[in-house]
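ARCHIVE CARD
Drawer: 12
Card no.: 0347
Subject: one protein chain, sequence and derived structure
Cross-reference: see card 0346
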Amino acid sequence: METNKEKGIHAVNQAFKKYEGVVKPQEYNLVENVTTDQFDDEFVIQTCDMREFFEGGEEGKAAFAKKLGSALEDIGFAVLSGHGVDTDLYVQSEIKVAELFEKVTLEKRMVYEAKRFGSVNQGYFPIKETTIIHPDLVEGWVFCRRAFDLPENKEYKEQAYWPEAGFEPHFRKIVQSHEKLILPIMQSILEYLGCDKHLYDKRLTGTNFGFRLNYYPAISKEDDASGAGRMLGHEDVDLFTLLPAQSVDGLQVFNQANGKWIRLNPDPGTIILNTGDYMQRLTNDRLPSTTHRVSKPKEATMFGKPRITIPMAIYLWEDEILDVLPGLVPKKYEPISAIKFHTGITSKYYGDEYAVEK
């Protein structure tokens, strides 16, 4: 008899519709289905050069906002170039992530097994245990703001979050570099939507985030035959996610306009940006929370190489209220606390008891 996770290999997203906090009419396979899935090889996800924002004055900011906003409204994804982050950090991160998952023993990693803190499930996720609805072929580790030696964390203790010394300083450099992009991105989105572009400056200064280390091990013959995907089809629950381009392909984006999947593998050093459920709710469905998944590489010759990614999901703190932005009418959603919204959606991955009703 199939387990619930094994059933997930054949499931479609609408089986979990009751958990959604925004309208999602699309139907798709959680895992790539070679018989029924179709691919869109013509659609090009827009690349937006952040140097326009940083170096182009008010005119450049306006031009960047128009390009970014139109890309996100179109499909919920964009590629960022000219972001100013030292891309050597990304190269070194592949080495550090591999070290964490390949050299630190499973026994040590399991000490930090994921638990909910606030809205977010934080800590280590063993392989095939990232959700209860699909046996994802990935190990993950989520580190939120409290896991880093930042000025506001006065009584910070590295060993409370990291199994060994040496990892936190490296990854802190990345999260602090990515934090510098949060306000430029949000300001540009708000300007595109005709809102006060500084409306969220205070709320997103020092906001919470989920910095996730993903280690997808080489695909064995058994895993290949099982039909399991590397990460199930889903929409992010956050405002937006920053994902440095990966060296091993597999990311697929669902195009709601034609029901086809787009293989997204942009240039090294760029950052993939996508909007999530918080953003769709705030923007009254203007900016969609777009479906994506991680499948096996297109070429079987890459099956033997691990895939490593370091996405950073940008959240609001739990006590913030998600309300449709001013001027976006007719208003489709009532105000809701971030913690209720967030945990209600993600309880589909972790179990109904995960949800917080307040």
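Annotation on reverse: The domain at 4-12+44-354 is CATH 2.60.120.330 (Jelly Rolls). The longest strand covers residues 209-216.
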